[in-house]
Every structure is written in C-alpha cells, then in structure tokens.
Amino acid sequence: MPGNDRDRSPWYWLLLVPIAVPLMTFLFNAAEPTLLGFPLFYWLQLAFIILGVATTTLVYRMTR
Amino acid sequence: MNPGEHVTEIVIFTVLFLVVSGMGFVAARWRRPQDLASLNEWGLGGRNFGSWITWFLVGGDLYTAYTFVAVPALLFGAGAMGFFAVPYTVIVYPLVFLVLIRLWSVSHVHSLVTPADFVRVRFGSPTLALLVAITGIVATMPYIALQLIGIEAVLKTMGIGGSGLLSDLPLIIAFVILAAYTYQSGLRAPALIAFVKDILIYLVILVAVIYIPARLGGWEVIFGRAQEKFAATPAQGDGILLNANNQLQYFTLALGSALALFLYPHSITGVLASKNRNVIKRNMSALPAYSLLLGLIALLGYMAIAAGVKPIGTDNNTVVPVLFDQMFPDWFAGIAFAAVGIGALVPAAIMSIAAANLFTRNIYREYINPQATDAQEAGVSKLTSLVVKVGAVLFILLIDPQFSIDLQLIGGVIILQTLPSVAIGLFTRWFHKVGLIAGWVAGMGGGLVLLYNISNPAIKHAHFGGSAFPLEKLGFDTKMTIYAGFLALLLNLIVAVAATLIARAAKVPDGPDGTSPDHFTADEGDPRVKDLELESST
Asked: Can you tell me where the transmembrane regions are (chain A) (predicted)?
C-alpha cells in the first residue's frame, strides 16, 4: 500500500471551492438576471450543484 | 376532508405500502448472509455494499420524507430562507469526502460500528464515548419522529388521521410494520426498499415540476405570485429573496446543518456499510443528483402559493400533499402519496438501527455486559430499535407537528456538539479528553440556553421557537439573526481549547490513543484491514 500520505494529495484542497462558494450570499441574493423565469437566487444556487459535482468528480479521479 | 372522496388514492397508497413492506421482510435473504446474528450483518449489512446500493442507501438516508414535506412548507411560509436546504446539501458532499473516508478507514481497521466507538479508541475515554453516544441517540429520536410527520401529512390529506387516539391508528400500524421488518432484516431492509422509494420519488417529482408549472402558467407566474403573497404579509423576514437581517442566518444555517448531517449516527451507518474508500468517493460526486431534486421539491412550496393551496388546519406540512391532491388525477396522487410514505420508511429504519447500535456498543457493552457475544449484541440492538421507534411514535402523538422542522433544527444543534471529538478527532489528537468533555458540556448547555431564548410569535411560543438567534440579545445593536448551533459550536471549541491547555499545564493524565496515522488511510485489501477482522470486535 502506498504509505500514509494518501490523504495528503493537494487535489483535496480543491474541495474547499464547492464548500465556500455556495455560502457567499452576496453572489446570488438578487432577482436579476432571471433564467427561464427563475430569479438569479434560485437558478444560480441550483447551478452550484453542478459546480459541486464537477469538483468532487475531478478530485475523486485524481486521488483514487 | 372526507375519506370517501379519496378512495382511489387510499387504495393505491395502501397497495404500494404493503408491497414495499413485503420487500422489507424478504430483505433478510438478500445477499444471503450466513448468519444475521452480529452487528456487522444486522447493523451494517455485511459492510459490503458497492456503489449502487450505497447511492440508494445514503440518498434514502439523507433525503427523507421530512425533506419532501417540511422544506416546501418552509418556502410556503417564509420564502427564500427555506432554500438554505440547497446550499446545505451542496457543501455536505465535499465535507463528507474529506472527513468520512478517514472514519471509514479507521473503523474498518478497528471493527468500529458507531462514531462513539471511534471516540473510545481515539481518546481512550469511556466517558467521552458515552457522551457522544447519548448525544447521537437523543438527536436521532426527533429525526425519526419527523419521518412520521411526512406520513401523517399524507394521511390527513386523504382524510384519514387528524386528531384523537383512534385517528392515529393508521400511523401506528405503519410504524408497527416498519418496526417488524427492521427487527427481522436489519440494514438490508432499508437498502432494498430504497430502490423503490427513489424510483417513485423521481417519477413523482419529475412529473410535478413539468406538469404543475404548465398548469399554473409557467415559472414566472409562480415566482410572481409568491412575491405578491410575501409583500402582502406583515412579517418582515419573508420574501423570495434574503434581506439584510437573515443572510448571516442563511449562511450559518447551511454550514451548520451540513456539519451536523454527517455527524448523525445514521449517515455514518450508511457510509460505514460501503465496501471501500472509492465507493464513498464516487458516491460523493454522484449524490448531488438528489440535491437537484431537492431544489425542485423545495419550489413545490411556491407552486402551492400560486395554486392557492390552503393547508389543512394550521399544519403547513400538508401543503405539498394538498397541492398534489388538487393538481393530479386521483391515481397519480395515490402514487405520489405512497412515494412520500415510503420515503419515510427508509430513513426511519436506518436511523433506528443507528441509534440502536450506539446503545448496544457504547452503553450495553461498555457498562452492562462487557463480555457480550456478537449474537447478544445483535439481539440487544434489535430490541433497542423497537424501543427507539416507540419513543418516536410518542413524540408525534404528544407534540404539535408544527414543530417538525424546529425539532430537527434542535437535534442539529445538539449533534453539532460532537464535532470536536468525532470530526476534528479524525485529523488531530491535539485535544485532551478533559478539554473535549468540557467543550461538550459548554456547547450543549450554551446551545440549549440559546434555543430556550428564541421565541416564535407566529406559533405563539416564547421558547424553543426555532434556531434563528437574534444577535441583539447578546447586546449587539442589530436585527441580524444567526444559527444557534453555530454559536454553540464556537463556544464548545473555545472551551475545549482552553480546557485542553489547562489540563496539559496541570498534567492531568490523558487517555491512550489506540490508532496510528496509517489507520486513517487503510483501504479494502489492505493487510491491516484483513488482520484486524480476524481479531473480531475487541
């Protein structure tokens, strides 16, 4: 087995992005611009799900 | 409402419910264990679940009936604030990715079943482990009770249930069935049922978010009507956007809830049942598919506003079932109700198993029968799972369902106090066991004082009215509110650091650490994992 530093890969730091971004209310607390009738507040926060999926998938691939 | 108008719905609901219950009993034979009489088998399904089963199991575990009923109810009542569930379920996966894979490894090396087991090994303190176990059990009970509220809301909409002892009978019968097959099959039952639950839920929600907006005139109309409703109410905190005073609450509530979620014993049970580290990692990138679903479900609250739904009595939890009842043909409403009802069974089963495991491992084996055999442990857990469910039913029968979401928020404040021992303990052994115990006492005490001082004029409660603590009560000149659990956790951490420094200075003996750094990264096929399995649970 490859040693104790398996959890020390720098890729793990990338996971801080999808933790921090969805918490910044100033990014999305507005009605405009709307998308398909959704105010910004709703569609952008749903879009953060994609950010989360992309980041965790990338880190999984790079650390498995 | 009159049950006579709902015959089709009741029939479909009952049939689906019974089919799923049958699956629960058959699950004991699924993936044929040689013997169910051990906690590894009954309580963790053989610790051998691959990616697909884990996805359904953890998804079934985290997105509960309460989610389908209470989150839209929150948007219906308060607006944007209720949408915190979306950022909360986005940030939880990277957090789990970072933290729980280490717990998986150390648990497999040492044959641990519960978070309190880990604390026992890591800090060598039965007292601290006992505190973590009790916290887990106490926080889980109202969460199980919440699942019943989902079923209750559906039953009310179909015109059965309501008030009085006899009308609670359908709910009690549903729970007796659940208790019986959990007793029989252990974690295999919810794992198998989770497949059906998810297929039904996905079906219902996809239909709902396409069909209902089309009937109501589109999303623009839905958001517009919601805005009109909130503008017309005298309350200051509501609206389809956040205001200056509740942004801090939104941020701390989402973060605090995410931290709390993976400390709950039932989420840990789901993660520990998986086969290896990569199963967990892969799942953390696939589970957010549920968050998208959750976001759409939340918006059912606004659809209910736009459709002019009136909740039954004062129970906002009924808005989604009533919306389905108004919008869908009877047969599809029946399927939708079954989805919510079955959605309650999966998490309720996992939660009661997790709470029972905590009791068995950290109270029964630690203090009552240290020589317990595997079969005795499994027997005690099975009985405890029944007791826990009876407790949950009493919660529902005796407490106003209006509190459902608040109950869960209070549970979150409580479980967060185990973060320093469990989550931080996975990364560092810096804290002294005395420090952690002192921090727990301070956080728990502080958290309960904060919650006690939160009033909720809307439901006429002077105390325990929610989790949004007004900062002006601490002497700040502001109308801002903050999540009480967040403040309590800060207090916990400060006290834990201070008490650790004092205990070191006073040379108070610390407990022994039973782990070594490589235990936190061990994986399936690793010689250590195998070796220690032979030693069994010592």
From this structure: 12-28, 40-60
What secondary structure, in 3-state letters, does B337-360 show?
HHHHHHHHHHHHHHHHHHHHHHHH
Most confidently modeled range among A23-27, B205-209, B396-400, B522-526: B205-209
Q: Does B480 touch chain A (CB under 8 A)?
A: no
CATH number for the domain spanning B189: value is 1.20.1730.10
The secondary structure of B117-160 as a DSSP string is: HHHHHHH--HHHHHHHHHHHHHHHHHHHHHHHHHHHHHHHHTT-
Task: Please report whether residue B230 resides in a domain.
Answer: yes
Residue of B91, B220, B246, B427 to mutate, testing the A interface (most A Cβ within 10 Å of its Cβ): B91
Q: Residue A22 falls within a domain, yes or no?
A: yes
A6: closest CA of chain B, how far (Å): 6
Residues of chain A found within 8 Å of residue B254, distances taken between Cβ atoms: 22-23
Q: Which residue has the higher pLDDT, B522 or B360?
A: B360
Whole domain around residue A59: which residue ranges?
Answer: 10-63
Specify the number of domains making up chain B. Answer: 1
Q: Show residues of chain A in contact with B83, CB under 8 Å.
A: 41-42, 45
ipTM score assigned to the predicted complex = 0.88
pTM of the model: 0.84
Angle (CA) B354 B357 B363, round 5° = 130
Mutate to test the interface with B, among A5, A53, A58, A64 (most CBs of B within 10 A): A53
H/E element, B469: strand B468-470
Strand partners, B239: B79
Q: Among B395, B386, B31, which residue's Cα sits nearest to residue B182?
A: B386
> Are A39 and B223 a contacting pair at CB < 8 A?
yes
